[in-house]
Amino acid sequence: MSAEQLLSSVPHADTIIVADLEAGIGTLTRLPEQAVEHTLVVVEPTPRSIDVGMRAVAVATEREQGHVTVLASKVADDADDARVRTAFADHDVVTIPTDPIVVNADRQGLSPMDLDASAPAVEAIGSLVGQLTQ
Amino acid sequence: MIRIAFAGKGGAGKSSISGTFARLLARRDRPVLAVDSDPLPGMAYSLGIPVDDRPAPDDVVVEGPAAGPRWVLRPGLDANGFIDQYAAAGPDDVRYLQFGNSWGHWSTLQRGQHAWSQVVKEMDPAAWNVVGDLPGGTRQAMFGWAKYADVLALVVEPTPKSIQVGRGLRNITKADWSPAHVVVVANRITGPYDVRRIHEALERPVIGAIPFDEAVTAADKRGRSPLDEGPSSFVDAVEELVTAAEFSYDEAGSQQTDGIA
Amino acid sequence: MRVAVVGKGGSGKTSVSGIFARALARAGHHVVGLDCDTNPNLGLSLGVGDMETERLLSLRDQIDEGEQSHAHTWEDILEAYGTDAPDGVRLTVVNRIDDPEPD
Fold it and tell me: What percentage of residues in chain B have a pLDDT greater than 90?
């Protein structure tokens, strides 16, 4: 089954399915409506990435893909944070700081969780757990 | 004429490199047509052309014959005419053709896709240098969206994820329309070990090694081309990449595409 | 509960997905990571390692080339195209990618 078919049919009462979709908005445009309870839109603080993020938010909203949360990724300073928050002023935004542990993990092909679970980016994502599972 | 397409994992730096490459090539040899088959904006930023989401007007295409593509250029409009009228003009006289509006209804995108694809196929190969940007990943590249290219440049960062996608892209050589040469451009390099690692994993000639440069991050955050932000090691490295590309054409002799595109 | 993670390529989507899945599991939830990418490497961000991630990738390639039959139920998919990740997370790759491009 494709992602589009799977998500609409997968049993999810006692399980949390975290679906890492293909980059871009292609899959999002093809997902049946209401296929998920939450959509996390990951956005870097650049116009290019914000542009894609805005399209993703629009499609997710139009197709009722649950609650939309924007994750501002690789935020290096207040200007970065503001750039994303301004663009998504009507949405919940969670800031994930730029983090050498994540960069390092990526270069080595490891999970940042296994390098340092208390790294700033890891903790920021950890804060999502409470938000989404209330 | 150089006809090169850039592919690679999303975020590897294809758009930044291809746009900068197109402008630097144009400073040496005109005309250059930049072709962007990504429905999401990317190359426009590094070309220094304002992002324009308006698709070409509906009437550039008409429904195609029953057995052929869904949409074809309207009678009287050929590839050269299309480029003349609808390709945006940017710095260094680069002309730019982008897929089309992905904000609109899917059928608008489909019209744009068909028009673009026909133009790229039918344009005079002797009249333009072509520098193309493919969307991240393997899907579009594998479906033949880089048929216009003699050279497919795989942009690879020194990470397992980026290398994995690069390796997947090598499968393109199995297709009969495959570009004659598949080469590698190593990006965000922090030292010679990175280049060696990429070379060993990809098993293809590495024709460029572009260093990690904060200037590119800064340009990206401002939505501007690295070329318009002042000198940088990134720009120097892309300049060398253009030289490497030109040199490989000189070596191989004239690279006409023979109607494959 | 189903969570879709989306974003421009290179934004950190897969890294976020991996960390998020592990964090959820550590908080006591039963978690499945679903890798919907044509080039599946969520395994790396989950911490299953290079070799196992490659193995899932070749499984996917074999499916594409018709050498493996498509799994039909969710349970089949989890079993045949999945692997165990740390913290009790189960990772699986999808086994068919729709092709919407014309021509």
Answer: 60
Predicted confidence (pLDDT) per residue in B221-246, tens digit = 999 999 999 999 999 999 999 999 99
Instruction: Compute the Cα dihedral for C14, C91, A18, A35 and give only its sign.
Output: positive
Residue-wise DSSP of B214-248: HHHHHHHHHT--GGGG---HHHHHHHHHHHHHHHH
Which residues 166-205 on chain B approach chain C with CB closer than 8 angstroms?
168
Q: Which residue of B has its CA nearest to C51?
A: B160
A57, A91 Cβ separation under 8 angstroms = yes
C75/chain A closest Cα distance in angstroms? 9
What would the pLDDT profile of A69-122 be if each residue is shown by its tens digit? 999 999 999 999 999 999 999 999 999 999 999 999 999 999 999 999 999 999
Contact B202, B221 (CB under 8 A): no
* C38 confidence band (pLDDT: 50, 70, 90): confident
What is the token pair recorded at C20? 């998020």
Q: Which domain holds residue A38?
A: 3-98
* Candidates 3.40.50.450, 3.40.50.300, 2.60.40.10, 3.60.110.10; CATH matching B3-251: 3.40.50.300
The pTM of the full predicted model, rounded to 2 decimals, is 0.93
Task: Give the CA-trace dihedral at B93, B97, B98, B104, to 10 degrees.
Answer: 110
Residue B74 DSSP one-character state: P
B121 DSSP assignment: H
Query: Which residue among B9, B110, B160 places its CB closest to the CB of C44?
Result: B160
Q: What is the number of CB-based contacts under 8 A between chain B and chain C? A: 55
Buried b (16+ CB within 10 A) or exposed e, A79-117: ebbebbbebbeeeebbbbbbbebbeebbbebbbbbebbb
Phi/psi of residue B225, each to 5°? Answer: -75, 140
Residue bearing tokens 């630097």: B24
